[in-house]
Amino acid sequence: MHHSKWTSLLFALVVILIVDNVHRATMWESEILNKATSMKYNCAPSNIVSMAATYAVNQTAKSDPMAKPKQNVVLLVGPHKTGSTSIQANLFNWLHDHTHPSKLSQSWAWPSPLEDMMDAGCKDIIDYDEMKKFALIYQWTKAMREDDDKEKRGIKCMFSPNGTQIYSVNQYLAIYEKEFHRQWVNGRGLVIASEALDIIGESKKGPRVFKRVVAQLPWHSNTVPAADGSDSDITAVVAYRSPRSKHLESLWHQCCMDKESFEHYLIHLNDRSWFPTHSLDSLNLANQFLKEGIKTLLIDLAGVLVEGYDVSNVIACDVLGAACTTEKRFMGALDEKPIIANAKNKNHTITLEQMQQIDEVIEEYECNFLTMLGHRSLTILYPSALDKLVEKCEGLGDRDLFGVEALKGKIVKIAKKSASGS
């Protein structure tokens, strides 16, 4: 009888925990759905429900001591100039601070083989700017994408200062694979973040880099012990920045503003075999992950701004499941201000009218991805600029769409108006 009484009490406690968990997950799901109610296209709110359901399952597993927590790999893939440096710096700090109120370090890891490389005596890493330690994943990405031996020499710790090769590419990647595996079998999800992963949107190198990324995840690794998991545990997070012309301008800031004017940069787009179209093309990047069967989350940065949120907090709260207020601030750290890094600016001679014309042609090109926005494996957070894009695309009717090379030509034509004075 005594045993039966305690069994009943234990059962009741478990029920209370599960009900509370479902309530919190339902509130989270409702909040995300509210952000999507303005969407006038088939973004499939059911997709957003399924994202919330995944979160609810994870939380329920954590509340039940008999259940194994659901782990995920979150790929933060940029693209370039969408706040990626700030996002990486903030998440790196939060995931390494075991006393941080977000408690993200309990469930998530930023898998970086920093200690292994330091133990091996890699001076490049020891002297690496403290602020940039999070960027070791960038080196991993470079190792997967570079074919040219000269470019490989720029990868930190692959070569010694005197030029002697320390690791082959496979050996170098194996160091990262080992760290991914170690963190995963210890029960943590992985946050793998590098804007250089936007190369996956590039037609030539992209498919190869994607395959190499997936091949190094714990469940594909030959490392012992064997790790559970599958590619269905991957979520790619892509940011969409607008106005689109400002995204293009920021790419100029990053590479070339000290060498050439914005006008010159635009006029000679077609002369640049290296122009990173994939770094501008967020929707194509999302589409590539969807084609590979990967769950994809698209964050509309304009919508985040409208709500008054910081995108780093949005990822921590809405994607990683940190304990947050409705204003996307951490419980217990309401006054914490996230890092904002790498903001650049420089005046140029391209007029406001030309910038608006550039917006228009980029958005018209993006109408190629209208159908993708309704993909069942795509979740869109904070739609704002994307709502407007859909309205524009629907207004075009049966007009023929154009590809990325034609887009470059149209941008060049707009830029030349300034040069000719017309």
Q: Could you characterize what this model shows?
A:
With 422 residues, the chain is of the alpha/beta class. The chain is 50% helix and 7% strand. The chain has 18 helices and six strands. A six-stranded parallel β-sheet has the order 2-3-1-4-5-6. The radius of gyration is 23 Å and the shape is globular. Residues 15-68 have low confidence and may be disordered.
Describe this structure in a few short sentences.
This protein has 422 residues and is of the alpha/beta class.
- Beta-strand level of the residues, as a percent range? 5-15%
The rough form would be described as globular
Number of helices: 18
Average of the residue pLDDT scores: 82
Describe the largest sheet: 6 strands, parallel
List the helices and strands and how they pair.
Elements lengths: L1 H35 L8 H19 L9 E4 L7 H13 L11 E2 L4 H6 L3 H4 L9 H10 L3 H4 L16 H17 L3 E5 L12 H10 L18 E7 L3 H12 L6 H6 L9 H4 L1 H10 L3 E6 H7 L3 H9 L32 H15 L11 E4 L3 H11 L8 H17 L2
Parallel strand pairs: 1-3, 1-4, 2-3, 4-5, 5-6
Helix pairs in contact: 1-2, 3-15, 16-18
